[in-house]
Amino acid sequence: MHALPGSRGRRRTTARRRREEADPLSTSTKDAARPVTQARITEHVARLGEQHPPLSLGPVDRTVRDPRAVAARFGSVIDYMARVELEVERNVLELLLMLPGVGETDRHFYQDVWGPQEVQHGLILDQLQTDLGLAPAEPDVDGVSGRVKVLGALAHLAPVQDVVRLMYYLTGAATERSAVMAYNVLGDGLTEMGEDAIATTIIAPIKRQEPGHFAFYSMSARAMVAAGELAPWQLRLARFLRSRSFGLVGVNRPSQEADAGAMMVAMGLDADLERYARDISRVETELLWARDQGMRVPGYVLATLRDAVDAHRARTLPA
Ligand SMILES: [Fe+2]
Ligand SMILES: [Fe+2]
What we know:
By secondary structure, this protein is mainly alpha-helical. The protein is 71% helix and 0% strand. It contains 14 helices and no strands. The protein has helices spanning 14-22, 29-33, 38-51, 67-86, 88-98, 104-131, 146-154, 158-192, 196-226, 232-245, 255-266, 273-280, 282-293, 299-316. Residues 1-13 and 19-29 have low confidence and may be disordered. One fe (ii) ion is lined by residues 85, 118, 121, 179, 206, 210.
């Protein structure tokens, strides 16, 4: 079963628990002060694997008091998250292409720890949306995008591979951070609606697994930069590629842009998109842009979020 984050858990305040869930790197000052080394990342992945086995459908309590109300308020979020979680199968194919000389810690993370956890999140959410009377998710699990094929071809050149690896970590950090936020909003919203069974047996256990994923990507990106693994030209190339290729997780076809916008609107994130952009791009802002631009939100992140919300609004306008 789930290892709850530490036996001191009961004594911690809700505010502190939230802070820790939001940023597991800040779990203790002693920990945060330790330099991020490859050994620490390897240790983190081993711990994630031991403490968080993939969830199963068994302990899920499928009681939903008002399926229609849940579907109306959060249907778009649950559908989006179910699809994205199930698409990890394709993500693994993409990773194999993008990181041909992958190291053992990365492989262990995505093949043995992250992938199996995410697939179970997807299956559980998919069952939930069927229970709500919604259509099952339609994940695209075999189409590797052209963009990834190009990166994959370039990644065979060792100096470019390091750049691609950094981009993979930055993408992962942004994606996992948005997952943490989505499950926080879903958990709070469902509890507020009196849907305690699904809030505590579906969303809470999934939510506990996401911060560890974020921590992996964030630590891996920081370790690369801190160790000076990238020459100035490689960091410049990373900035260029990132600003040209940034995309939201789960947006692989034009219609999915509006789906992402619908999800953001259902979560109330459209009220302060800049804050959302700052939150999901914190790692890349710090590693790629802070030197030149300070901690300003990268324009391409904010523009991508705005475009998604606009696409959703355009789709829902009366004809
Ligand atoms: Fe997940
Ligand atoms: Fe995740």
